[in-house]
Structures are given as structure tokens and as C-alpha cells.
Specification:
The complex is a heterodimer of chains A (about 280) and B (about 240). Chain A is an alpha+beta fold and about 280 residues long. Chain A is built from 7 helices and 13 strands. Chain A has one domain: Aminohydrolase, N-terminal nucleophile (Ntn) domain (Glutamine Phosphoribosylpyrophosphate, subunit 1, domain 1), CATH 3.60.20. The longest helix of chain A has 22 residues. The C terminus of chain A is likely disordered. The radius of gyration of chain B is 19 Å and the shape is globular. The chains are: A alpha+beta (about 280), B alpha+beta (about 240). Chains A and B meet through helix 1 and helix 2 of A and strand 3, helix 2 and helix 3 of B.
Amino acid sequence: MGLPTFLPGDDPGPDFPALMRRLGRPLGHPRLEGAPGDPLPAGAGANQLPVRHGTTVVALRYGDGVVMAGDRRATEGHLIAHRAMDKVFPADRHSAVAIAGAAGPAVEMVKLFQTQLEHYEKVEGVVLSLEGKANQLSQMVREHLPMAMQGLVVVPLFAGYDLARSRGRIFTYDVTGGHYEEADHGATGSGGRDARTTIKLGWREGLDRSEAVDLAIKALYEAADEDSATGGPDLVRGIFPVVATVDSEGYLQLDQGEVAQRFGTLVGSLGDGRVSTPAGGASR
Amino acid sequence: MTMPFYVAPEQVMKDRAEYAQKGIARGRSLVATIYSGGILIVAENPSRSLHKVSEIYDRIAFGGVGKYNEFDQLRVAGVRHADTKGYAYSRDDVDARSLANLYAQFLGNVFTHEMKPLEVEILVAELGTREGTDQLYHIAYEGTITDEDHFAVLGGDAQTIAERMAASFNDGWELQDALRATVAALAGPDRSLRPDDLEVAVLARANGRRAFRRVGADELAALLGDAPRPARQRKAKAPEPA
């Protein structure tokens, strides 16, 4: 492997995927049989393949930034494939990305996204704007569309602190790579709907960090309550959702002990009159 | 048809070396030194945006002196090499030694095969996981690579600056001591360098995954212990080549 230098007209610039293509090492999975969108050969559909899926991730804005959280369960069909998967990642110092969908390509997409943001920053000497980062992720989701058409859907969630505007911002995506800025909160994955409803009911302008974290945890709890593919708090193994915040100081992941404690408080408060034991008393 | 003149290969090499050395000697110098918490890199560079010192990867930094466009091209190539390697294998597999070797090969190739040698000297610094394992590679315009133990001096007046550095170097010194001594060595006895004239960066073990950090103007002034200067009045400096 020699030093990768290019002639001026041929230079990939700060674009890492373009660099990989120029070096003859294209990214992404080889296409399955058939053209994009064609029905797959019998038995080869992604639904029949043992493909791991990640489930519910949420993001919400608070006074100083954004909170992002994701459950830990990965499923293969109706089986639990992994109990402690990470779905929330730092994209760079001031942004975070979370994933739902086919776990393999999703984690790969995150790795590529992280590499691209850092690559741009180093080559250009400046950090991309938050909008620019959201756009980059858009392109990656769009490139993945043929695979999505064959069943390996990846839908990320992107949030970060916009240093130019001094506020947290959230972007949701669809399989075509469209990205949409959300005013206050967003969620994706199989339990995303339940999670989002919970956030919607509890959200208000100017939440502080602690309140926002509690709301995210509650949203994941409610999603796990309704959706079989979303993992709730695992008290036996001590596995709790990954929760991170991004503010002007950067990305910060809460430690599992703190999340556990907050879960304890939440479950305690839910006990009052809501969950009843068969005997009719409140469960604690 | 005219006959090409015969020029002895020794003469060709000598001319090229002289040409490159001249180009490098026109520029200002750069010093990297190892201190207790990592590696300190100080360059004499009045520009805020055209950097001589940059980040290559998590624990690797780049320094270049000479012609800006030439060493900047090498810097970008280094970032590309490191990022593609880290992406294909693992972040732990990206190391300074292989990058330094690539630079040496590239510079050696250009020196022997191209019309014009590159007028640059390159530093590749790698922060070790613990004290005593830091590495400094100094690559010259013709591809000679040297592995320095304590400090590396690149650029114009390297010989005299290196002598001054050797006199003040202390194994395991702190950042502030290292910085003051390095700046003094760069400046020499006859002039003094202000924070504005310097570009300073560190690779520090305390910085986490991405160890590279630029030392900003305020922090630099504090470290150098400069008294606040009276209303933008710069000290008269001896005239020097650009």
C-alpha cells in the first residue's frame, strides 16, 4: 500500500467514501441476487435470513442540548439475539447517531459516518456544520436503499448541538435517505411510536438535562412495555438503556449505574395505582 | 537534433539536494519534544490558519516545514492512509512507523525520479500508551528517516536549534518547562518569540482517544508567562528571511 496521493483533477477531497472508491475498495455489502427491488430468490429473503435487528431509539431536545437513548435488545426474527447491544454512538464531539433496523449494515453505517466526519475535519481543518453532518448521513442512507428494498432496512436518528445556533437539533430519516428536522423530539424503530407518544405527553420547552433524561428513559420503558422487540431494563443482568446527552460541552454518555438509579425511581413512581398485582394491591 | 549533455549522476543528486536544502532553509523551524504527559510540537508560524502542525490520527501528529503546498499534500495523504487503514482493520493498527516509512519512500522516489525534489521536511509523532514509549520520526527531503529519542528539529537552522535543545532538555519535564525551553531554543539568544509568532500543539495522554490538541493563544500566553502586552505593540524583531 503506497501513500494515497492523487492528481489535482482526480482528488476525492474530504470525502471518505469517494476515497475508498478511488482506491478500489468500494464500501457496502455486495448486492443480493437480482436487481434492486426485484423479488429475491425463494428462501433468500431477508425475512428468512437470520439477520439481527436493533429496535427502539429516541431523541429529544432540552434547554441546553439533546438527549439520545436506545434500548439494548437485538432480535433475530422472534428470538433475542443480543441483550446488550449499543445503538447510540457519538458521531463526533458535538453530535450523536442512533440506529434501528438491520444491525449489521446499521453498525457499519455508523462506523463509516464517524470516519467520514473525522476525515472531513482533519482534511479540511474545520468541523462540518450540523446540517452538513445530517446531509452526509442522508447520502449514506440513500446509498443503502437497494439493500433496504431487499429487506435490510436501516433507519438512523441523528441529533447534535449546533454550535452556530447554540441549540440542540434532531433529524429523523426514512429509507430513501430523506432527512427531516424535528422541532422537539424524534424516535425510530419498532417501539418508536410508543416511545414518541410518551415523549410527546411529557415534553415541554426548556426541560433541564435531568428531566429530559428521565423522560427518555420513561419513553423506552413504555416502548418495551408495548413492543416485544424492545428490551426493557434487565435487572437480573444489570443491563440498562444507553443514554447520552450532547450539549455545548460535547457528547457525554451516562454511566449504567445512574441509568439504573433513574429506572428505579421511575418504576417506583409507576407502582402507585397503575400496575396492579392479581391480588389488587399496588406492586412495588 | 541536439545531443543531450551528459551530466554525472553525482552532480544531479548534489544539485537537487542543494535545491531542496535552499528551499527548506528559507522557511522557519519546528521543534517537537517529549514531555511527561506526551509530545509537544512548537512551530514558528505567524499564520492562524495555514498550519504546520496537524492531527493525523488518534495518537499521531504531523509536522511539516518548507513549502506549504508540498507538505500539506503529504499531510492529507497521511490522513487518508491512516483513516483507510483504521477503517479496514482497527484503530489500534494505525501506527506512525508505517506512515513514516511511506513518507520516506514517497520523498525518496520524488527525489530520484522527478524533475524537482520536494522542499520539505516531515515530522511524524506518535504518542505511546505510557511514558517512555512516545516516538518521533524525522523524514528529510530525500527520504532519509531518523528516529529521535528526545526531540526533533526540522527546518532552516536545525543544527543550532538542536544544540540549544540538547543543552536544555530534561527527561520527564513538565509541559510548561518543555514549552519555555523549546520556544527559547527556537528563538535563539538574539530575539524573543511572542505567542502570536507560534503554533503550538500537543499529543497528550490525558486527552482521551483523540490525543491531538492545539494550544490556543490565551493558554499559550499563560504557559509562557507573558505579561499582557501594551496595546498591540509588538517587540521589534530582527529582520529575518520569510
